[in-house]
Amino acid sequence: MRQLQLLALISTLICLPFVKAQDPARPSPPPQNVPQASPSPTPTPLPPPTVSIDNYRATAGRIIGAALVSDRAYERLAYLTDHIGHRLSGSKSLERAIEWALAEMKRDGLDNVRGEKVMVPHWVRGEESLEMTAPRPMKLSMLGLGNSVGTPAEGITAEPVVVRNFAELDALGEKVRGKIVVYNVPFTGYGATVQYRGSGPSRAARYGAVAALVRSVTPVSLQSPHTGGLNYDQRQPKIPAAAISIEAAELLQRMHDRGDRMTLRLKMEAKFLPDAESANVIAELRGSEKPDEIVLVSGHFDSWDVGQGAHDDGGGCIIAWEAVRLLKELGLRPRRTIRVVLYTNEENGLRGGNAYRDAYRAELSKHIFAIESDSGTYRPEGLGLAATAPLQVRSNLREIAKLLSGIGADGIAPSGGGADIGPIMREGVPGASLDVEGSRYFDIHHTASDTLDKIDPRDLQLCVATMAVFAYTIADIPEPLKGPEGTGR
Asked: pTM score, two decimals?
């Protein structure tokens, strides 16, 4: 009976078109940061595909069907999040996760399972608090920004100055000396807004500010601060920095605009300990004909020290891992090797991605393709291919994506990639991200709410299916993904 149900499901997936549902309660956000003054340039025509997918339709259906009747991915993500929890670099919980993954991958029968040593920064949050002391006592929701320095034990007490952008800060200049700069910058898109978290503290320190508070990089808040990393400018003093909730930022803005005299007290025990030993977790499905050629699938195993790191990026790691395990279980061994990498230290150092590039620099010419899953575990829409990828790669991926039209994951977005595969992409490896419908991702990104209950098990299964079909087909097609020498860009 189970086999008949599976066959019926596969038939439905292959033959029926996928219809994307629209959430009536949450309209799709408009495109962010798109210039409106001039029309978009005409895209360069793609060359015809040089790969054939005719021999992969049945196999793709088999992979999709197997993924959609398996609970293994969800069970493993549940263990990772509920039994191990969040996994900040240098923490015992991250090392427990690494040991667990290595043991489980060996139990899965994957090839060449190993942990490759990486020394990572060891930042510790410690106790922290933010309160208004005048004109009335009030605790404010906050999370220290990753890699921030701490305050003196007694904290920092100072008047806040609220600005909505860097231009307002620059206009005030030395008037912020001795004060706490508050960046109340509404979310207009991650790339545009996250700069205030990344460089805002040093920009404030340039003018003598004693601390910086950044409105959380999110469109939604229920008194929920969002942490994340900052990047100190070594030419400026290092000042403590924290994220505050939208509600706290708007409160301070209103009071500032009325001319109310305010005082804030910020306390942070944040500090760095000596670098700690960690590891990239690596396993393979060894290729049958060209084992030295690599198709890489990946996520990052570390997370921030709040919540459970379910969407960011426990789910991404499980997707990549389960895709390879599923192929192994189905007895599908492609011509080339599929390598799964669970990177360490993406959140506050990128040591794992850089270490992988350095360890395999001599072999990068044999890396055929790399996929990173780090945009949340939501319904997959295909891949986001880096804009720098050869045109022939884009054309061939569009052809391969047709194998996933039955589940609506057949798109090839115009841009993509990832932080951890970025170092090898800059060395010439074509790279892409798993593209998902992530309109709700930044609601919980880097918060205590990034927990397992936010994961839809069916979305997780669909992501596994998408990753597995792309990885297997790219690794098995006889033709080079880049096409014959000289084709494309």
From this structure: 0.91
